[in-house]
Amino acid sequence: MVTGRPLGPRAAARGWLERPIRVLGAIWLAVVLLVAWELKFRPGESVFMPPMSAILGAFVQQWFVLDPGQLFVTDHFQTNAVPSLLRLAQGWTIAAAIGIGAGLVLGIWRPALAFLNPLIRFGMSTPSTALLPIVIVVFGITSSMNVALIAMGSTWSVLINTIDGVRSLDPTMINAARSLRLGRSAFFWRVLLPSASPQIFAGLRISLGIALILMVVSELYAATSGIGHVMVFAKTTFRFVDMWSAIVFVGVLGLLLNGLFGLVEARVLRWKLESSRGAGGS
User: Fold this and answer.
1) For residue 256, how many other CB atoms are within 10 A of its CB?
2) What pLDDT sits at residue 29?
3) Fold adopted by 77-167+193-273
């Protein structure tokens, strides 16, 4: 087999065109929906549904500024978005630590899993938003309340996926580790944790989306600052353009967080992708 053959002009041109075509294929529906929104809700058509041009204009003006001294963000961003991001980061980190730690223990220790399984299933079946009144009573209208709700609601997906990742360990790998006489520590770090990592990252990705939802929900009902608070305040003062601007901000934030998480996941699980390619090539 001949390798390293230079690409011809036509193949090189196709290579240059593939990326723009993929980008257009990914965004064409979003562009169509934005244009349809603009045409449907032209200025003056509806107070509650402003045109997309007004929403996007308010989005840029409300959250960003061309000033390097302010890191290109407005005072409004620092007052509301920064507290929301801190609550999201704290709650999600707590959920990840508890979910991964408890999931590894329960996945390895089967009797404990059998004993706690009804409680875990009950916790998963209970909507996290139903706990909002209880969390408000316990913590009051504080950032600790928002963080607690985010952590409580985001833990379950990490926990369940971690348990499934540990329990789905290939028996062949276990037998190979025993034949190599690996100690418990070596088995954990070299076999068990890498094998469960794809499932753990799947749970972390799901929990990140749940954490973002709970961040907004908790701030809608009990917060003096934050993105959810901005939505409620804009609604009560009939500033619906600003309300939609905050909604767009949450959507953009979700896309950015998901993209960043995807980069980290691809970096950490690069070995799995390379092994899959090797298996496919063979």
Assistant:
1) 10
2) 82
3) MetI-like fold (1.10.3720)
- Per the structure block, which two tokens stand in for 260? 């960043």
* 65/74 Cα distance (integer angstroms): 6
Do 128 and 152 touch, CB atoms closer than 8 A?
yes
Distance between alpha carbon 165 and the CA centroid of its chain, in Å? 19
Asked whether the CA dihedral 235, 237, 243, 246 is positive or negative, the reply is negative
Beta strands in 74-197 (DSSP E): none
DSSP, collapsed to helix, strand or coil, labels residue 64 as strand
Mean pLDDT split into 10-residue runs, the chain, 282 residues? 52 63 74 87 80 92 89 92 96 97 94 92 90 90 93 95 91 80 84 91 96 94 90 93 95 94 91 63 54
Question: What are the C-alpha distances in Å from 257 to residues 9, 116, 191, 252, 266?
Answer: 38, 32, 29, 9, 14
CA atoms within 13 A on the CB side of 139: 18
Closest by CA position to 38, among listed 62, 250, 30, 232: 30
Supply the pLDDT for residue 1.
Answer: 44
Rounded Cα gap, residues 157 and 161, in angstroms: 6
pLDDT given for residue 278 in this prediction: 57
